Amino acid sequence: MKIIKYLIITFVSILILIAISIPLLNNFLVNTIENQLIKANSKNLTITPGAIEIDILKRNIKLKNTKINYVTVTENGNVILPEIHIYGIQPNSYKKPDSITIDSLTIVKALYSQKKQDSINIDTKTKKSTLPYIAINSLKIIKAKHIVQDKNSDTTLHTKSLNLTISKLNYNTNSKEKIAIDSYSYDIDSIHTPLDDFEKLYIENIKGDSTTMKITNLQIRPTYSKEEMSALLKKEKDWIDLKVRSLVIHNQKLNFKDETIQIKADSIEIDNAKLSVYRDKQIADDHSYKPLYSKKLRELNFPILIPKIKLNNGSIEYEERIQNNGKPGMITFTELKGTIYDINNTGINNNTTIDLTTKFMGHAPFTFHWNFNIADKTDYFKMKGELHNLTAASINQFTLPNLNVQCTGHIDHVYFDISANDYKAQGKYLMDYKNFKIEIEKKNENQINKFLSNIANIFIKTNKDNLKEVHIDVKRDPEKSFFNFLWLCVKQGTLHSVT
């Protein structure tokens, strides 16, 4: 009986000792964590811990209102962490004595703000981590916000809400790739960022995981109206408005190596992209060199490998103003669809191929084939196009405002096959049409100039019932774009066909 009595007394004493020890140990650990966070401070990094709660039996830690401020050569950053939940801490595994394993780490409503600054001289050395290996089975970031400001405190990036889940994150300072991730998923709402003084990027939502990314309602919006932008420009620049309902990237891979990014994806699908472009030709030309697309891709400062891009149900509207009075001229491409194959700027000798079909001016079927080799420094390329059943009057919405020319008749068939490089283009052009005539209007008047119209129609063959080949030989203007180069080829082929 005495033995049982002593055992009970001993057991109760142990329980009392544990009950007394746990709060004391919790306080000790809270003080230890606070001291460790403060010890991590340096000239360039300040960590201000808030409230800390510890459940030693469950190995859980909760931190409230932790603040981090850092300074780099070009920016000042602040991170506000209202809540951090750490569950299932397992320090000093026998397999990795200098390590820590965490079952779950959750960060709630973090606010990360960056402000750019003029370059300053600071000591960029960082303290070596006392824990070379950290393993987190589950990391969650919930409803985080991210703001970037320039030196003038103007916002250059704003992300309203970011949710991120990572499974099995390993951080190893002794490994070449310090961070390894098993899988992840994310959901980001409302991203705004200016692209330059005249365009802003808006994204409604980005959602994805380690294999697929979906972007919903991507827009490049003009900062100014067409008239406002023209008043501000000193050199010619396109006014652009782009809306993309959906962009899906399949099996994307973003690799970071030697401080550069490598972009890979199996395929990209773009649905309902609508592009509006306006050019005011009354503004002085920009005389800078305009590289062709093969050169632009070749000279990107990061590698890109995308085997396939698919376009569905797109449209392009192009307006051009030559005269100050009346409406600008317009051409349209609707029901645009097609595929781009093999965008690869890693030096591999692959042909990039673009196949498109569309309706020109809303009704005439038009197919376009274009291929080039990004690695070819001569920038050689081939393009073919075929147009059917174009009502000549439909192009008046472009020719009348800009050229004071009205067309009548019917263009049955147009075909061209052109080879070109950065300097010139050569090829063949065929055109079949009926009852084609033009009427020239008097400038600034809504009246036909019969004399000039009659003279012009003398030199125009009204009918051409078979596809007679004419030769194209065009010199490229290096101060103009690829599309100007294509237009010069079509223009020359058309004039040779009808005169």
Structural account:
The chain has 499 residues and is of the alpha+beta class. Among the domains are: 1-39; 40-194, no CATH class. Helix content is 17%, strand content 55%. The protein is built from six helices and 23 strands. It has helices at residues 2-39, 226-232, 293-298, 396-403, 450-458, 482-498, and strands at 45-48, 51-55, 60-71, 75-91, 99-108, 111-116, 133-149, 155-172, 179-194, 199-209, 212-222, 239-250, 253-257, 260-264, 267-280, 304-321, 329-344, 351-360, 364-373, 381-391, 405-420, 424-440, 464-475. The chain has a 23-stranded mixed β-sheet that branches. Helix 3 (293-298) links the parallel strand 15 and strand 16 (304-321). The longest helix is centred in the first third of the chain and has 38 residues, at 2-39. It starts with a helix and ends with a helix.
Which helices and strands occur, and which strands form pairs?
Blueprint: H1 2-39, E1 45-48, E2 51-55, E3 60-71, E4 75-91, E5 99-108, E6 111-116, E7 133-149, E8 155-172, E9 179-194, E10 199-209, E11 212-222, H2 226-232, E12 239-250, E13 253-257, E14 260-264, E15 267-280, H3 293-298, E16 304-321, E17 329-344, E18 351-360, E19 364-373, E20 381-391, H4 396-403, E21 405-420, E22 424-440, H5 450-458, E23 464-475, H6 482-498
Parallel strand pairs: 5-7, 6-7, 14-16, 15-16
Antiparallel strand pairs: 1-3, 2-3, 3-4, 4-5, 4-6, 7-8, 8-9, 9-10, 10-11, 11-12, 12-15, 13-14, 16-17, 17-18, 18-19, 19-20, 20-21, 21-22, 22-23
